[in-house]
């Protein structure tokens, strides 16, 4: 009996394919009750096992535990896939016992008792949270269901250590998927080569691309997406006839701002990426908007009114300064700031800046007091002013703490320092001067 | 696939295995490793005799009793019970007159399920008709009626084996246990109840009224408790030899030619005395005495046999051992991107400075920025990208939230790092193509 699968079908995974085939590929031999595949996200775990199972032509079902988020869905999905969608109506399977009875029935019907049946559970770390009895039962399916050759394959990017409950579990056969190396990544990405460009030209591009991206991301799915997205940009000047296809240094100069911009948008997948690159295309790199970072764009996108800007700055100051410091910071005539000798400085624990500790809550009165002390003109307190606070809460820039209608409302600032610095810049207000912990 | 290697192997020795024989051997040995029933129970003769006599008396004399079999996971509790039943099947005449009912705590999650399971295993489903699906009390009384019928001599004895016994204790009111123990104690019908569990404190879980009906007979199974390391090692190697060797009396082994069997057994014998193989086994034994791990190990070793690889060699053992002893936690860190690794290093330093106090994203980010300012090459530390990296670490469970409250803003949620400094440093020194600045940062004491 020859190997039914060529290991070259799955790139860079020879060892793993060989091992899985040696465990599951011989229909006359015993099958381990449970195999655990772990490795980083998109390191080819599911792809490999699916390829192998397809090639081996054994009965197999795949359930993603994100979709099957309750045991019932997992069970029903397994059963319907096994029977081949014949009996989806009237199928109801709520618990392990029901599942095992039905599985036995299915096995009787389809004569599966002596055949290899593989149940692949992707994202299996979620099984831990469903029902404490579920995972142990699924791992022992061979013993419990009397199907002699059923095997549960758990696929996860969390290590096996994290699965073991206090009661303990029988150890499964572990197969670890090593993260792809840089040359592996290049090999896999080069599969996506567009037809109308030569291979070494594409390889050149990939090397540039990987050099920029690999520092922040080793997720092959994301890299493939980004590579395809940026290759279009890379080729544009060639198609327009501006740059020769062999002039790699000029091409690099052209693509590098695109790559940098695209790197900021990693994992985001929104269309803003396209808009951003079209702006770079229009050859105005020092345009006011382009020089801003993505967080600045976010801050400006709200287009807050004048008073609301001051209110959010005041809220930030209220959140990150202790009330004790208010007097020193905001009372105008405190020219007599005594230089107190800092006593008792042999604090062994370094002090943690309040900026990294998260916002404190403050009440409405304090917010208004800070607001009036930082704004030049003094607007009358009015409904219009107070609705600004409500709209800030609605925009989720402020958070309201507690919802007791009788108590005075309390708030927390929900935006970070860089947001506030950008807002303050538009007001030409030096916010850092008022922050005790800002260095 | 090329056919040359076979010829090569053949030419080396006159007595070698043919591909078909290797296949058969692989099948037999896999069977021995994976199916507990296909190999005899080893060790703990006292406990074995206890369970055997318990069951035998229940079957032959209709004596009712209850007992608990307690032992750590993987100690061979189920194997013991299986081989006891196997033995009784072979030599006890009254075996045909008795019924073995097996319940499992994972499957029969409440008393109703358990009752259904009992009814189906006693083949009373038809007799009960739709009563099985009636009310709980009715079912129970019906079932008990069936058990009670007839006097000692004429009724079938029933052996209840409750796997994961501790889970049955969590059933509401412990009705099932109460009734089973009650029947056993008052000798209404000849039943024997054996609970199998890995919890030593299981009797504390029993309610008082249940406890008073339980015979309080406990059989403890600690197969490795008394042995020294050397003895244990010796037993290990013997076990290895037993699992790998082929005994001609075995069913499918009869298809194998005597010379092949002999050759294979000689090979196993040699391997088990080979010092590098025993070193591998020793290394594993020092880490875990779990027999299942050994079986998994041998399974992978034996699986390496195929048409191009007809005999086991010591390198098979060594390579699988390498796979087993690898620290996957470090291997996972090595698979991170440089940015994520930098975050981990920042967390590690944060831990050292603040003596393992929990940290949040802002603290780690501030530390990362500080590093970036001092480093000559500018890294990409766009905040959003770093947030993504942080979340990736969280989803890999490299960091664990202190509380799961959703009240706190994402950036300020507190976390604990799930790695020690040495693991991170080991991964840093193994990492391919890491900038020297980063590794210097990881190994520096001051931050």
UniProtKB/TrEMBL annotation, chain A:
Listed GO MF terms: ATP binding; DNA replication origin binding
Entry keywords, A to Z: ATP-binding, DNA replication, Nucleotide-binding, Nucleus
Keyword RNA-binding annotated: no
Subcellular location: Nucleus
GO terms (BP aspect): DNA replication initiation
Domain ORC5 lid: start-end pairs: 202-264
Domain Orc1-like AAA ATPase span(s) in chain numbering: 10-144
Keyword Nucleus annotated: yes
TM annotation in the entry: none
The Origin recognition complex subunit 5 C-terminal domain, residue ranges: 304-435
Source species, domain of life: Eukaryota
Listed InterPro entries: AAA_16, ORC5, ORC5_C, ORC5_lid, P-loop_NTPase
One Gene Ontology cellular component annotation held by this UniProt entry: nuclear origin of replication recognition complex
PANTHER family for this protein: ORIGIN RECOGNITION COMPLEX SUBUNIT 5 (PTHR12705)
Family per record: Belongs to the ORC5 family.
Name of the protein in its database record: Origin recognition complex subunit 5
Species: Megalurothrips usitatus
Automatic annotation (TrEMBL), chain B:
AAA+ ATPase domain sequence ranges: 63-224
Record InterPro entries: AAA+_ATPase (IPR003593), AAA_16 (IPR041664), ORC4 (IPR016527), ORC4_C (IPR032705), P-loop_NTPase (IPR027417)
GO biological process, one term: DNA replication initiation
KW Nucleus (keyword) present: yes
GO MF annotation: an example: ATP binding
Keywords: ATP-binding, DNA replication, DNA-binding, Nucleotide-binding, Nucleus
Locations listed in the record: Nucleus
Lineage: superkingdom: Eukaryota
GO cellular component, one term: nuclear origin of replication recognition complex
Classification via Pfam families: AAA_16 (PF13191), ORC4_C (PF14629)
Location (main, coarse): nucleus
Subunit structure: Component of ORC, a complex composed of at least 6 subunits: ORC1, ORC2, ORC3, ORC4, ORC5 and ORC6. ORC is regulated in a cell-cycle dependent manner. It is sequentially assembled at the exit from anaphase of mitosis and disassembled as cells enter S phase. Interacts with DBF4. Interacts with POLQ.
Job of this protein: Component of the origin recognition complex (ORC) that binds origins of replication.
Family the UniProt entry places it in: Belongs to the ORC4 family.
Name of this chain's protein: Origin recognition complex subunit 4
Species per Swiss-Prot/TrEMBL record: Megalurothrips usitatus (bean blossom thrips)
